[in-house]
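Researcher: Quick one. three chains, 974 residues in total.
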Amino acid sequence: MAETVSIKPGPALAAATKAGIEPRGAKPRRTLSGRNIMLYGTLAVAALYYLLPLYVMVVTSLKGMPEIRLGNIFSPPLEVTFEPWAKAWATACTGLNCDGLSRGFWNSVRITVPSTLISILVASVNGYALANWKFKGADLFFTILIVGAFIPYQVMIYPIVIVLRELGIYGTLTGLIIVHTIFGMPILTLLFRNYFSSLPEELFKAARIDGAGFWQIYFRIMLPMSLPIFVVAMILQITGIWNDFLFGVVFTRPEYYPMTVQLNNIVNSVQGVKEYNVNMAATLLTGAVPLIVYFVSGRLFVRGIAAGAVKG
Amino acid sequence: MQKSVSIKDLSLSFGAVNVLENLNLDIGEGEFLVLLGSSGCGKSTLLNCIAGLLEPTGGQIFIKNKNVTWEEPKDRGIGMVFQSYALYPQMTVEKNLSFGLQVAKMPKAEIDKRVARAAEILQIGPLLKRKPSELSGGQRQRVAIGRALVRDVDVFLFDEPLSNLDAKLRSELRVEIKRLHQSLKNTMVYVTHDQIEALTLADRIAIMKSGVIQQLADPNTIYNAPKNMFVAGFIGSPSMNFLRGEIVEKGGKPIFVANGVDFALDGYAAGEPLQAGRKVVLGVRPEHVKVNEDGPGADHHQATVDIEEPMGADNLLWLKHAGHTMSVRVAGARRFKPGTAVKLSFDMGLASLFDAGTEERI
Amino acid sequence: MTGQAHTGRPSKLLRNLSSKIASIPMMLTAVVIFLGGTVWTVIYSFTNSKLLPRAKFVGFDQYERLWSAPRWIVSIENLAIYGIFTLIFSLVVGFLLAALMDQKIRFENTFRTIFLYPFALSFIVTGLVWQWILNPEFGVQSVVRSLGWTSFTFDPLYNSDIVIYGVLIAGLWQGTGLVMCLLLAGLRGIDEDIWKAARVDGIPMWKTYLFIVIPMMRPVFITTLVIIASGIVKVYDLVVAQTSGGPGISSEVPAKYVYDYMFQAQNLGQGFAASTMMLLTVAIIIIPWAYLEFGGRKRG
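Model:
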């Protein structure tokens, strides 16, 4: 899976994270010793546990309701039907509308794309400023930013509601994009600051001797050298923003609800008969985007969450 | 000599730490000045101040009689070569060379002309279309020098440019830099911790310690007449032998006595009268001690060979003499078994005397 | 930046101007939102704000009401149970998996992909799929019963005594892969010579892990602990999707309490007080950690 992307990591980043990703040592010998049976047996059982929900989602979504009522959730479908998928996408009802998930999907696209781009732009320039053009007091703001990453969102959402309302953008997509930019800032700034700091300082000095200024160095020297870290940041942001529920429900009006909120409203809607196959199809559809990002990006995803989790 | 770079009362501190304190230095037009010292002595800091990459806390810097203390690096007429080469990895050699000129919005024809000239001087013409990752260490450093060359600057600044190269390449490029200086005749300021580079390249060497220039002189003076014990001990490998003792009056003449052994001081040009009873340190370089040769004082300097280190051209002997361990360099062909008794003689004209308290040369 | 030939020291404010401009979003976020917002919420938790914030201060009234509300007590209990078990299980299971993965196994990439994919999914998706698996009518309970064990009972989501454990199962499924990944990175950071030395000295593998490797990984464990812990306090979407806090109020959590009071019950004061308590909880976790991480280092 990781081999499908061919992005060369920067040397510093590769060195920093390689240890956590690459298997080490000689190729294991193929022996059927008791130790190996234990080892692979345990891993296989664990793997089954982790795969089970995905399997259940898939088979449930391909069955008709009568079959679900009769059979057990683990049995494969006797008769494959894609109707639940179609219904989940186009006509499933929340308490408010019967547009299915499609509305939420397009809202999520409209939220995720600009939020990802803007948050990365803001944070990368900021991280670059912190790494290479430090000014007095910069560290103080940065410390507040990082400490702020640990504050529960619930503490800050109402003040943000007030600020957005004053700006006249409460309930709009713009407002939500700003919120995602704000809450993505600590981790992304940290990520970029650490990355730019890890680049040789002499490169920056050489560019200054060559007469390049703040933006010229950013766009012409730093940016082209930092593509891997931008990919990592994009993975981090796309999955994070796509999976967000709280901000979507707090900061947007129902017509802009993202896919997660729409999904929850469809599945947990109290009206009508529960259609488990439609629910599972809808759940899979919502999980599809981050799953695709995950499977395509492979190792970069691991690096992204490691970067997001452990400060570099 | 016309002044090229002039530094007046330069100070720089990071918080409470003073890295440079009231430093004064004049560098002549076309001079090759080496800033020499161990890491943390402030030599790179000083270079970065000249380049404009660090802001001094106080003092002024003049280049070509213009006060550039607050100028941007690009406006100072300097080019800089770094230890890690600092080539832009995503650009070809050609782009690396022309980047600064492009930023300065120079016409393309002029850029091409200058790049071609630099490539010719440095013999990197065939490499122009390559990326830095496809070059060897020596080639990269040539490109880095070329980047300073194209900008047609008054002053070249080198920050340990050869430290990342292996020993063989280092000596090759050292010669090239010297040749470059001889043909371009630019002012060059060169930071290194390698005394061989300093001695071979410099017109003058400034030896630094704790942000202060200990001695500023031509290599010969630095080597043969070090101003204090730090300079004496820093230059030369193995280090100068130091013998602690005092001045004693004998036969109407001052002589040096250490651990009961007398050293006649005939031939030493002291800068001040040598008073009896003064505690001093005698410094003798390993190659200035003669073994088993006739000469003044040879008769009563008895020593025993402790360890022998044959090094090909030379043979390094560690001797027990007058209660000290003394290193002596002899020709490689002269071999001594450990335990051999030898006679030593000293050429006082090449020795140094230091005050034991101030450690300054007498 | 100005490019003029000036000999005097340039103005302090204008120096590094581009850098300062680029940092404006960070400064605003740090000061207005993170600092200002937090202080504002704490201050307004001492008011009797209802539908709109009003600066009418009522002392600790909101807190008294909060701590006498059964729903809040249940929320705190649930958070404690969920938190303790999440910490224990995700660290133990995560470390075991990481240790197994570190045995130079084949298919390491495949296994890692499998263990980690749930982390890519949202809590909403996680909650909904486990809601379905734990559905007593069709899920695990009915499958086991259909195998012949007719008295088998496993209906956590419909039993208010154990509902929080149902949430726990889902939470662990989603998050353990991350813990495994972090700890595996920590294991790989251990110098391989340590392993060689232990083997030469004849120390059994489990002892090497227990007495040498785990103590060496202390910083990784602490960081992982902080990440898990701050995630626990924020747990919200999972409960909303999986149980909606039910049955009754038996799976309520503090974050949901805050949201419901702020945006549905229109009792802002309660919401502020509850969120301030959440802040306090995080502070209790973070401050000792920050002290250990940064305070100790300065001294040492």
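The interface with chain B takes residues 1, 3, 5-10 of chain C (CB under 8 Å).
Researcher: Thanks, that's what I needed.
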